[in-house]
Specification:
Length: 325
Amino acid sequence: MSYLTEELVAMGHEVTLFASGDSTTQAELVAVSPCALRLSRECVDPYIYHTLLLEQVFQRHEAFDLIHFHTDYLHFPATRRLELRHLTTLHGRLDISDLVPFYREYAEMPLTSISLAQRKPLSWANWVANIYHGLPRDLFTPRAEKGKYLAVVGRISPEKRVDRAIRIALRSGIPLKIAAKVDKPDREYFTREIEPMLRQPSIEFLGEISEPEKNELLGHAYALLFPIGWPEPFGLAMVEAMACGTPVIAYPFGSVPEVVDEGKTGFIVNDEGEAVKALRKVEGLNRMVCRRVFEERFSADRMAREYLAVYSYLCEPESTSRMIS
């Protein structure tokens, strides 16, 4: 959302961002909480602030040509009853049976997916476009020389399968650096399943890191390991690696086959043995090709242009050709 907001402002559009008070933006900022909720030690119920955010949006809705929601489905009852142009980007997994009757009820809501795989469980919903995430071109530094360690970036949870990454690294004989957050719901899993595996001397756990630190970590990595075990909606870590010129070794779930170009930006594998074999082939990949694919497919300016096309269609459907969904 931040990268999209800043690109739209840079293109000359007037944007109002409803977010936390510590957000850095060139847009008009409407703060609904003093700081980011995930990092707050005082926030007990985040949905209170989400509701307050939506109240602020709806109080001002007549001032906007279009409202782009990233609040999942919380706004649907109100948007149905107000005269406004709107779009909702869904960011999470949709293979949950409870979602079916809900989206059947709100079948008119215009939606964008972040991968074609994400939308499959609700393929009949009102999808107006599929738009991949994008990153600023200058956020990560491409490096031509291959690194000497493997990297994992993201969060530690059962579906991310960091345990697989550790075993792959141990079998390959290549050191592994893990930069990942541990959310409260996953703390017990981390303590029980992952922490004992970190005692190996070649495995280094860094915890959550900043964007500059991520640039260094991924830029100097031999490859990113992405051995997930769930229908990943997008997987931004894969694109962050490509932006650094670092190839990706990933399991074929969710968006992975859409994001990774087999034999070009990495390899898609089915098990740990295949992953170890794929690591031997990484040397044959051109890291600058990885970077070029990032610039062509996953830049923030490309993302912003595609969303602008959707906005135009929703605001002036008569004069805009049908979106390719």
